[in-house]
Design brief:
Order of helices and strands: HEEEEEEEEEE
Oligomer: single chain
Number of strands: 10
Strand content: over 45%
CATH class: Mainly Beta
Structural class: mainly beta
Number of helices: 1
CATH topology: Porin
Shape: elongated
Length: about 220
């Protein structure tokens, strides 16, 4: 699910061309939910701490410390200001993808495959909408997200008699862009499909996602 950042940015620019000149505002509030499939680009090496406070550097012989995929969902609150512009806030918990089982360790004698990952994302997006029919809008989004990632679990070494719970955390605010389509089912309910890309943190470098959601006008 690789998404070309430049292509999405261009789509956003095209879809929001008419927004700059729009001055008539008629805010309509809505709430919604979204189910997502996520593709992670993670770091190859992650630093954490064990229960003694000692630093543990975990690394993988693979290209990434975490597995590539995970599921997620979003709770959304937004306002559609006019036919072309909306603003959204969202809370987006995500499953983390599994820690690589081969060579996920400080050295060959450490085993970190018991680690689990969780992510939480809080974001704000400006949404550009281009109506192509009374029921269908093309959608582009640009915004920022605060991605918090946490790894926790037991790192073991039979050779060193080492068996410690290790935790690693990273939080960072990054840019996000998206493009998709929205369908008006009736005057109250709309369905939406979105492709997005967001910059990540020291554990997850970036997240690409495909989301399917429902929006309900208040």
């Amino acid at each position: 699910m690789k998404i070309k950042l430049a292509g999405i940015a261009l789509s956003v620019a095209m879809l929001t061309t008419g927004v700059a000149g729009a001055v008539d505002l008629d805010p309509k509030f809505y709430v919604g939910g979204e189910l997502q499939g996520n593709h992670y680009t993670s770091a190859k090496k992650v630093k954490g701490k064990d229960t003694t406070g000692a630093e543990v550097t975990m690394k993988s012989g693979k290209k990434a410390f975490l597995g590539k995929s995970g599921m997620g969902g979003s709770a959304i609150v937004g306002t559609r200001l006019n036919d072309n512009l909306a603003l959204e806030l969202g809370f987006n918990p995500m499953s983390g993808g599994k820690v690589a089982k081969k060579d996920a360790a400080t050295t060959a004698i450490f085993d970190a495959s018991g680690m689990k990952a969780k992510h939480q994302n809080i974001y704000a997006d400006a949404i550009g909408l281009l109506p192509v029919s009374p029921e269908v809008d093309l959608v582009g989004s640009i915004g920022v997200g605060r991605l918090h990632s946490k790894l926790s679990g037991t790192v073991k070494s039979a050779a060193l008699a080492y068996n410690q719970k290790v935790t690693a955390k990273s939080t960072k605010v990054g840019a996000r862009v998206g493009a998709g389509i929205q369908y008006k089912i009736n005057d109250t309910i709309s369905a939406r499909a979105m492709l997005r890309r967001q910059q990540g943190n020291k554990i997850v470098k970036s997240v690409n996602s495909l989301g399917l959601g429902i929006l309900v006008s208040l």
